[in-house]
Amino acid sequence: MSQASLPALTMGLNALSALLDKAESYAAAKKIDPSVLLNTRLAPDMFSLLMQVQAATDIAKNGASRLAGVEPPRYEDTEKTLDELRVRIAKTLSYVESVDRAQIDASADRTLSFPLGPKNKGEMKGDDYLSHFLLPNFYFHLTVAYTILRHCGVELGKTDYLGGIPMKMSPR
Amino acid sequence: MSQASLPALTMGLNALSALLDKAESYAAAKKIDPSVLLNTRLAPDMFSLLMQVQAATDIAKNGASRLAGVEPPRYEDTEKTLDELRVRIAKTLSYVESVDRAQIDASADRTLSFPLGPKNKGEMKGDDYLSHFLLPNFYFHLTVAYTILRHCGVELGKTDYLGGIPMKMSPR
Questions:
Q1: Is there a contact between B61 and B141 (Cβ–Cβ < 8 Å)?
Q2: Is the CB of A43 less than 8 angstroms away from the CB of B151?
Q3: Which of A49, A68, B141, B166 could be disulfide-bonded to A103 (CB atoms 3.0-4.6 Å)?
Q4: Is the pTM of this model over 0.90?
């Protein structure tokens, strides 16, 4: 359970932070205020880039906490700048790396309960939560963040999304 | 390994097929040719909706095959319509469900080798391939397909992306 969750979250959060670095370089080169990128949405009722980063980090820290059976830290969602978002990502990385792996490894058959919006709660078995909630939601927000930047013209490729994955590439 | 891969692929492919059903209803209601939706891209050098569906199904059938240590079936990429894409998804679902789970379960420490474009190959350990290649790439294309439809105005929510996940929802 910990091996199927924590490295994926760490890899994705590092990739997300690097995406923000590329957004910053692009904004500087094009003389665009970075807040234009941070406020871009792909549909009027979808989250902006800034909110996608908040959501991805929320899911990472909430997910690691639920699997470990501990209460997640609260974030205040006050970020406005690229620097503040990078601090939030770094804080989330530290948190994810601090969670007790043994507790996560014991979570596969445990029923996890978690808030869903202001009024409801969801309940899922630990391994279902990992496969059908945590990972798809985490990659959703990472992908939309990446796609917003592509949509805005930032030059990115799939490796910017995947991050520094442990793959050996060679000629066939 | 099979439990962390096959149910996620099945859930996602079923969600993708249902997204195409909603695209079809939307096109009919708005009197839009569905090919307009299928040819929409979120950046000029990103895949269209049609190609996102092809890519998601490719990754599902290739990923299940690589984990099981068998050669993936070849798809000819001739689809042009929603119906043809749904047939492709259904074929992929049948394939994913047919793969030998015991062979996948034995793949965590095996080194998998797979083509990367026309000239290169990638090599990864089975559990790394699942966590850092198969799942992030699969959710990438599923998310972009969903986001293209949201961008076009189709009314969708997160549950359309997640699919029929095994979650019990109740008041807090």
A1: no
A2: yes
A3: A68
A4: yes
